[in-house]
Design a protein that fits this description.
Layout lengths: L1 H35 L2 H36 L4 H30 L5 H51 L1
Helix pairs in contact: 1-2, 1-4, 2-3, 3-4
Length: about 160
Amino acid sequence: MQHIKTTLQILIIALNSAFIGAMVLIALVIVPFWQAGETQAFLDWFSAYSPNIAKMMIPLGPGVLVLAILVFFMERENKILWGLTIVFLVANVGYFPIYFLPANASFAEQTIAISEVSAELATWLDFHWHRIILALGALLTSILAVVRNQSMILPIQRSRELSAS
């Protein structure tokens, strides 16, 4: 059981790191690309390519959350750290249906007024950075939980090894 729990914990850290990396790439590379072009070109690009980004991003956020919930119920120690991880992830994932789903739809379906796109894209980027910070909080608390758990396990293993000698 310990191996399964450890594997899930490492998977949470790895997937959340990938999620953060993808979000940082979007914030530092893709959004400036969108902002540099003409408004209509951005809307056309978003209509064509945003479904591909969604296919990658949507499973990562909720996927990490589901794994964190599993570990929370499997873990006897570090409940507070795993609980904080879940809180950060719920807040992160919550941004999607509340803000990003309607905003992305307005870009993809081109229902937003051209004059409002620049301001909306600036708001979009601000909220995107909020999500990055929340994901970093989740990453930090999950790493702390794993490190703390390992520091608790190692003395027990050493004690068993010494008593077996």
